[in-house]
Inverse folding.
């Protein structure tokens, strides 16, 4: 197991090393200014200086994205359930969900700031909206794609609507819901950072705008890397949960 | 036990079932045979309460169950096991829907049915024949007294099918629940049932009801006996006439 993991990752790992090496050499060779493109070594140095004072920013962004993600997930699953159980409501509102899914949520930000000010609320709304759509759409897709034979079996056995939903449709939609959760997880970090650009006391977004406006480019890179790490950690966590929840599933097959 | 009185059903202009009356006694194994499209599945949906008949009534143990669901146990053509449940949880599904789950009885029955080794496995780990066995045990464990079996072996290969028929008889003869069984194999109907109901097509009407005289327990030799072939010929004559 360990050796096979090593075997799989050494190539991409080597590629990254070569890339970083070329970057380092290029910045020195062409003597590129640090404010324009800092060398990887500069970024590492900067990170060492900054990371000790970084935790409030990190904490703020993580809290924001996790709360937004949880609210978005709850609302998304709730709305998907309501739309699924009430076909009339679904027929009325589903087109709007599809249209609004294709709208860049971030453009709503200035409007939300006008309405709700610079506190956490408009940021939470943005993250919630960003997470809501992928989850609602994937859950709804999962509910409606429930295996027809299983539905027929349940009906023949006299299952009522509640039993049909809780015992069949919901568990059947779990893999589909998880693909929505994975998208929403990444969106939530992005939405949190971008919403912090609009104005906040602390957060990775704030740290980034401050660094960028004073041309401390290596700091911007540090912030980018931290945001990436959070995003990946989030994704990994959801992946672990998914493994736990659908351990019954055979690899590569769906029934 | 189960009684259908003059049940008719049409979809739009097309009449599917015309005045079907039939009777399944306690502990009786009754087969319905007829060509594809003869409305056998519609008949099951009516008995199961998924559809309402245009005319006629359905009674179970003296109680009218027309348009009512939850009174019968069902085994579909595809095993239809829940992929996220273990075999044990799957066979308990019928009980789960009606109320209490009896784990001890389920384990004992799986053991008895030769499925003891896969109690905690998931359905995808089982072969097609094994899945059908699980689906049959699930139907047998459900609390309802009548089982509807809808061509349960039609998706299996010939060898597995004969094995499954013998297996089914060996289990069923211990429990003697009433079974209404849809098939389009004459051999299967003759080998398994006490009574065979032959349907015609467009619309489906009952052509004939044949009492199968073979004694139980039955074994595989019966399939090749002279008597068996004569009965088979008799049924073919009825269908072709």
């Amino acid at each position: 197991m360990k050796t096979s993991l090593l075997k799989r990752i050494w190539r991409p790992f080597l590629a990254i090393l070569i890339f970083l090496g070329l970057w380092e050499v290029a910045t020195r060779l062409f003597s590129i200014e640090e404010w324009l493109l800092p060398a990887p070594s500069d970024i590492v140095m900067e990170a060492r200086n900054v990371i000790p004072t970084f935790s409030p920013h990190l904490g703020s962004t993580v809290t924001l994205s996790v709360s937004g993600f949880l609210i978005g997930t709850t609302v998304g699953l709730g709305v998907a359930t309501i739309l699924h159980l009430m076909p009339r409501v679904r027929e009325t509102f589903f087109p709007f969900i599809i249209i609004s899914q294709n709208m860049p949520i971030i453009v709503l930000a200035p409007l939300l700031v006008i309405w709700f000010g610079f506190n956490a609320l408009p940021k939470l709304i943005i993250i919630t909206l960003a997470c809501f759509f992928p989850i609602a759409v994937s859950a709804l897709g999962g509910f409606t794609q429930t295996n027809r034979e299983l539905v027929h079996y349940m009906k023949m056995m006299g299952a009522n609507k509640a039993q049909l939903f809780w015992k069949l449709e919901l568990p059947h939609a779990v893999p589909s819901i998880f693909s929505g959760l994975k998208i929403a997880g990444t969106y939530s970090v992005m939405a949190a950072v971008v919403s912090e650009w609009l104005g906040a006391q602390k957060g990775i977004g704030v740290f980034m705008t401050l660094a960028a406006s004073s041309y401390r480019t290596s700091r911007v890179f540090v912030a980018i890397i931290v945001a990436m790490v959070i995003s990946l950690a989030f994704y990994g966590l959801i992946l672990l949960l998914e493994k736990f929840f659908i351990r019954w599933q055979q690899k590569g097959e769906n029934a | 036990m189960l009684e259908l009185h003059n049940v008719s059903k049409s979809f739009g202009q097309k009449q599917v079932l015309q005045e079907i009356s039939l009777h399944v006694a306690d502990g009786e194994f009754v087969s319905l045979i007829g060509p594809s499209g003869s409305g056998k599945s519609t008949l099951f949906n009516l008995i199961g309460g998924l559809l309402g008949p245009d005319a006629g009534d359905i009674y179970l143990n003296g109680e009218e169950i027309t348009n009512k669901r939850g009174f019968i146990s069902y085994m579909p053509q595809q095993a239809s096991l829940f992929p996220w449940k273990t075999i044990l949880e799957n066979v308990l599904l019928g009980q789960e829907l009606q109320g209490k789950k009896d784990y001890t009885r389920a384990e004992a029955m799986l053991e008895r049915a030769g499925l003891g080794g896969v109690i905690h496995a998931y359905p995808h780990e089982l072969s097609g024949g094994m899945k059908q066995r699980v689906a049959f045990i699930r139907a047998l464990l459900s609390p309802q007294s009548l089982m509807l079996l809808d061509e349960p072996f039609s998706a299996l290969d010939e060898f597995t099918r004969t094995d499954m028929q013998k297996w089914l008889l060996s289990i069923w003869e211990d429990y003697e629940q009433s079974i209404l069984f849809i098939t389009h194999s004459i051999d299967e109907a003759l080998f398994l049932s006490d009574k065979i109901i032959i349907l015609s097509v467009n619309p489906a009407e009952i052509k004939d009801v044949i009492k199968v005289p073979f004694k139980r327990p039955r074994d595989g030799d019966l399939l090749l006996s002279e008597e068996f072939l004569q009965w088979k010929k008799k049924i073919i004559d009825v269908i072709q006439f």
Remarks:
- The interface with chain B takes residues 147, 149-150, 152-159, 163, 167-168, 171-172, 174, 246, 248-250, 253-255 of chain A (CB under 8 Å).
